[in-house]
Specification:
The chain is α+β, with helices and mostly antiparallel strands and 585 residues long. A hairpin with a 2-residue loop joins strand 2 (27-31) and strand 3 (34-40). The longest helix is centred in the N-terminal third of the chain and has 22 residues, at 71-92. The chain is built from 14 helices and 32 strands. The chain has three domains: 2-172, no CATH class; 191-451, P-loop containing nucleotide triphosphate hydrolases (Rossmann fold, 3-Layer(aba) Sandwich); 454-583, no CATH class. Strands 1, 2, 3, 4, 5, 7 and 8 form a seven-stranded mixed beta sheet that branches. A six-stranded mixed beta sheet has the order 19-22-23-16-24-25, sandwiched between helices. It has a four-stranded antiparallel beta sheet with strand order 14-15-11-18. The protein is 28% helix and 22% strand. The relative contact order is 0.11. The model is unreliable at 572-579 (pLDDT under 50). The chain is globular and about 85 Å long.
């Protein structure tokens, strides 16, 4: 292996040479205690920065084995160190020429603690960090002095100041590891206790703003406190007994006046499928891994989905057992989203009336009289929500502020009053008994199972010109897949650009490896999960990249279902019900 001094000599000879000469530096270089690897040197200062890695032995990093003695603890420690590296890199990076010259960047974790490829700990304490650097240039000519300072001074400084245990508080490192382990254990207890979610007493749920996932710090933040009737105690391996509100299986309503915290609670549950970093406020808010947020999505494409449990034949005889459209309405998009989620194993649905289609959610007695059932194809969700639970074991949590008809079908009712939850189920049941609406249920008892769909791999085309895989992800909600744009802005449980980028790679991986026109969507997702479980997120790319983050089967299915070129058939073999999971474990 070549040495750091040899790298110094090689760079020194490159001054003023063509920028593409940086390609000669690709390979492994011994930097004393660790190995520095240049996997890909960019060919232009304005191109994507160069991909590099550092492999650090456990003796150099010096972590307490307690911080990585379980996979859960290791993940918490990885997230802590990746965030530290990002903070130091921002501080140490200097502009060193044109384009991206001088940049040092890593994919920084957000509030969520996810499996990722930016920084990985082995079970022996060795560490690999993957990041990018902008190799310096003036115009398109190499500036050797700046390159030497970047690679031989700046990069080692960032590593030294962020990834060695000695520069951090031992208590803080152990806290990050233990907290992540506790959250995993809390979530694992939900099913045995008949719960779909848990919110610890003292949790801080409000976020800083509508476009920020950071906790609200200013003003008065009301800590969460469970109503006595819903309070449960869960056990965590490090924190011990954790008290808080358990949300039971079945149909749960979150009610209350406007601005009292209904949607804030629902959002905390929607993101409770992920663990959170220390200080987030939602560290002990956990939801069933099979929890899926559902909303109306005007204009999305739908392909071959059986939405007949909610919507009968449309005007002019258009059937809905194999429903396809390039431009769904609010009601058809919401019906499709529910059936797609159940198809791939959802166990809990979250719905907020603010983002739902009104005519899909409810049809009151007066409207039933004005427009008879034989002229209305929509079976409202209020008439199906119990069937989902009783026939398929799918619970639902709804934010409802304007329709008392849902009191007739609820198992649990939680009222938010000045950000404090109250258990009002008994009162709600009494009101439902005393104030009959006269509404007539509009549906037969049987719901039926979603028809398995077989995706056609030929319809999933990522080619763009001469590029075989023209995939670009510029923000969390937009994926450019070949010549198409997949709009994921309404898929609210995608939390980062890294997740969306990984879903794009997984979609291509699924097409190439597992879609044969004979496997239904759920079985394809099972295969992708199994491959990632066996080989990690690195199986998704032939290169070693640091920009992947763990995702769930539901968001991969959402991307597939929104691909406008998708074609499916419905002649599926018998398949077992898939088990929800997070990909990237």
């Amino acid at each position: 292996m070549k040495t750091k001094d040899q790298l110094r000599s090689a760079i020194s000879t490159m001054d003023r040479r063509s920028y593409k000469s940086y390609k000669e530096l690709e390979g492994e270089w011994l930097f004393g205690d660790y190995t520095f690897v240049i996997d890909h040197a960019q060919g232009d200062p304005f191109a994507q920065p160069s991909r590099v890695r550092a492999r650090l032995p456990g003796a150099y990093v010096g972590l307490d084995p307690e911080t990585y003695r379980s996979p859960s603890r290791a993940r918490g420690t990885e997230s802590f160190l990746a965030r530290a590296f990002a903070d130091v890199a921002r501080r140490e990076s200097k502009r060193r020429g044109t384009g991206h010259s001088g940049e040092i960047r890593i994919v920084c974790p957000g509030q969520e603690v996810l499996p990722q490829t930016a920084l990985m700990l082995s079970d022996s304490g060795d560490l690999e960090v993957r990041f990018t650097v902008g190799l310096p240039a003036r115009g398109r000519r190499i500036v050797a002095k700046e390159a030497l300072e970047l690679l031989l001074e700046d990069v080692p400084a960032v590593i030294e100041l962020s990834l060695r245990a000695a520069v951090h508080s031992a208590d803080h490192l152990l806290e990050a590891a233990r907290l992540n382990e506790d959250a995993d254990h809390l979530r694992e207890q939900l099913t045995d206790l008949g719960l779909v979610a848990f919110v610890a007493d003292g949790a801080s749920l409000p976020r800083a703003s509508g476009d920020s996932d950071r906790p609200l710090r200013s003003g008065e933040v009301v800590p969460f406190e469970s109503p006595p009737a819903l309070r449960v105690e869960l056990e965590a391996p490090n924190a011990g007994s954790v008290r808080g509100m358990g949300v039971p299986e079945g149909v749960t309503l979150i009610v209350g006046g406007g601005f009292h915290g209904k949607s804030t609670l629902l959002q905390a549950l929607q993101w409770g499928v992920y663990n959170h970093r220390v200080g987030d406020g939602r560290e002990c808010v956990v939801s069933d891994p099979g929890t899926v947020k559902i909303r109306a999505e005007d204009g999305r494409s739908v392909c071959g989905v059986d939405i007949s449990p909610f919507i009968g034949d449309l005007p002019l005889g258009k059937p809905t057992r194999d429903f396809s459209t390039p431009n769904a309405s609010g009601s058809t998009s919401q019906a499709a989203a529910i059936m797609e989620a159940v198809e791939v194993g959802a166990r809990v649905l979250l719905i907020d009336e603010d983002t739902a289609a009104t005519n899909f959610m409810i049809r009151d007695r007066r409207m039933q009289e004005l427009v008879p059932k034989d002229r209305e194809p929509i079976t409202p969700f209020v008439d199906r929500v119990r069937h989902l639970y009783e026939q398929h074991g799918v619970s639902t949590i709804l934010v409802i502020g304007g329709s008392g008809d849902y009191l007739d079908v609820a198992d649990t009712v939680i009222a938010m009053d000045e950000y404090r939850p109250r258990h009002v189920t008994a009162k709600a049941m009494s009101i439902a008994q005393d104030l009959r609406t006269g509404r007539i249920a509009e549906v037969p008892e049987h719901f039926g199972r979603p028809t398995p769909r077989l995706p056609d791999p030929g319809s999933i085309d990522s080619r763009q010109g001469r590029w075989k895989a023209g995939i670009k992800v510029r923000d969390r909600g937009t994926m450019h897949f070949g010549k198409q744009t997949i709009d994921l802005s309404a898929v609210e449980q995608l939390v980062s650009v890294a997740q969306t980028r990984t879903v794009a790679a997984a979609l291509l991986f699924a097409r190439d490896r597992f879609m044969d026109g004979k496997r239904p969507v759920a079985a394809v997702l099972d295969e992708v999960e199994a491959a990632i479980s066996a080989g990690g997120l690195d199986v998704l790319d032939d290169r070693l990249v640091g920009h992947f983050a763990g995702f769930r089967r539901f968001e991969l299915a959402a991307a597939l279902n929104r691909l406008r070129s998708l074609r499916v058939s419905a002649e599926a073999p018998q398949q077992g019900r898939p088990a929800p999971a997070s990909m990237g474990a």
